[in-house]
Design goal:
The termini are far apart. The protein folds into two domains: about 140 residues, 2,3-Dihydroxybiphenyl 1,2-Dioxygenase, domain 1 (Roll), CATH 3.10.180; about 50 residues, no CATH class. Strand 3 and strand 4 form a beta hairpin. With about 220 residues, it is of the alpha/beta class. It has five helices and eight strands, in the order E-H-E-E-E-E-H-E-E-E-H-H-H.
Length: about 220
Amino acid sequence: MQASISPPDAAQLRLHGVDHTARPTWRLKDTVTFYRDILGLPLIHTISARGWGPETHPDFLHFFFDSGNGSTIAFFYYLGSTEPELLAGRDARPPFPDDHVFDATHTAWLVDTQDELLAWKARLEARGVVVSAETAHEVIESIYFRDPNGYFIEITRKLRTLEPLDARDADATLAAAIELEDEASAAQSRVTSIDAIWARKAEILCHRLGLEQECHA
């Protein structure tokens, strides 16, 4: 009789970092050249397979590049399929997010110092890649560029270590946003201003800290 195995307690479950990210590509040679030869990421594995699942699934190549610290970035190349129109011309777009839906999905790699960040910028530009200026936002400083598919890529360094205060601030910010979204949904309207979220966040913090009288004085 096989012994039953109890699932681990949810409180004990932890993720251990990103194993890989994956995206489709319709530009096999350009993608391999960019990630292996320009970025210098070792090509470490390729799965070649007949279509999986439904009969309409094409045969494909699924290939992986070592992106450091045990992680990989991977691509699917679907044999015989056609690149969708939404990707056409994206590789030539400037290296800043001009499509807040498409470009929000991106990969960011970490370096330790500003010197490393600038060295990556110089390396990429020397190989013909258009790279953004260094951009600092709150706790990171980054450069941005696009791969041959038009996918947004970021290399970043941390400006400071996150503290417990950051987690509390994050919780209050999202709590405020969720409250306002629920209220707006009930009223069949939309939340479009960050100022409204900041104002509600202030109210939430006043309540949590027991400072209602002081905040409304």
